[in-house]
Amino acid sequence: MTSRERVLTVFEHREPDRVPRWCGASPEFCEKACREFGLSDEELSVRFGDDFRRVSAVYDGPDFALSQGADSRTIFGVERSGIGYGQPKSHPLADADLREIERYPWPDSAWMDVSGIAGDAAQYGGKYAILGGDWSPFWHDAIDLVGMEKLYMKMFDDPECVDALFSRIVDYYYEVSRRIFESASDAIDIFFIGNDFGGQTGALLSPAMFDRFIMPHLLRLIELGHLYGLKVQLHCCGGFRELLEMMIDGGLDAVHAVQPSCRGMELAGLKRAYGDRLVFNGGIDSHHALIKGTPETVVAETRRVLDIMMPGGGYIGGASHDYILGETPVENVAAMFDTIGEYGVYART
User: Fold this and answer.
1) What are phi and psi of 220, to 5 degrees?
2) Whether the model pTM is above 0.85
3) Using CA atoms, how far apart are residues 307 and 292, in angstroms rounded to an integer?
């Protein structure tokens, strides 16, 4: 099978020739691994057996000057500073009422140039499963704009305001992805979106609150992907088992970077309860196995996870955190992917 055939077979909950491999890594890790192996970024993806490639729109909107001390600015005008993505310097809609939300200078989807996506995908010659669409982290953007505590309080005190906030954010992401799919849906296989609705001890919202405030907007994005014949995969960190039934009922096809160390995310239970309805991506512990382990312990952990998750298909092998960190030993990551390639075979002869 080609990588694309392998992945699409998994999304149909059938067993392919072997478990697909997913490599999501930080720039720092990729730079280190490329240096150690003497490879380019694409050659590194081939070395790890990554069955996926991603295509993206390119920002072509106005230039916004950063204020002193800011390192970056989100598409919604929130300046951030600090390590990595940093933290918001302020929450511009923290005290906004409904009128102020409507009058806020929301971004224009036309700022994203979608013209090169089909060509970017074509360079892979149909070999790999192609991820596309806008990342659409509407939950995180709402937190940036309002602040997490105030967002929770507004859900009780001013739900109409919260509805308007999410609607305006998702309107932007919906339209960017719609333009991407209009331009290049034939070149894309999976609409990949990301929002972290879970923490170490469980979901960040109760099922009732998630259903009331989040699910309608998540459903819009899922339905958009399906309208263009795409599978939809949600990146979601943490524990969120109590939300899975709603996500499945809403048509979600896959969840990504499953973290078994979080409450409710024990792999055998997830596979038993949802394995015939939802593709699971990840599950090989990043924190303890990959960062702190040895190649030998990584091999053992990878085989343990494969034994649980492989049967019947519906599983993509990879780390329990998509952003493999720079401090992760390269030999451990190589051991994980090599073990998936060697042990994750369905038709052993």
Assistant:
1) -55, -45
2) yes
3) 22
Contact 313, 13 (CB under 8 A): yes
The pLDDT tens digits for 48-75 are 999 999 999 999 999 999 999 999 999 9
The pLDDT tens digits of the residues spanning 228-268 come to 999 999 999 999 999 999 999 999 999 999 999 999 999 99
Residues 329 and 20: their CA atoms lie apart, in Å, by 22
Instruction: Fold for 3-62+96-343, please state it.
Output: TIM Barrel (3.20.20)
* Cα–Cα distance measured from residue 279 to residue 24, given in angstroms and rounded to the nearest whole number: 17
Helices 330-343 and 295-309 meet at what angle, rounded to 10? 40
User: How far apart are the C-alpha atoms of 349 and 345, rounded to whole Å?
Assistant: 10
Tally the C-alpha atoms within 13 A of residue 342's C-alpha that lie toward its C-beta.
10
DSSP β-bridge partners for residue 80: 72, 88
Closest to 154 in 3D by CA, of 94, 216, 212: 94
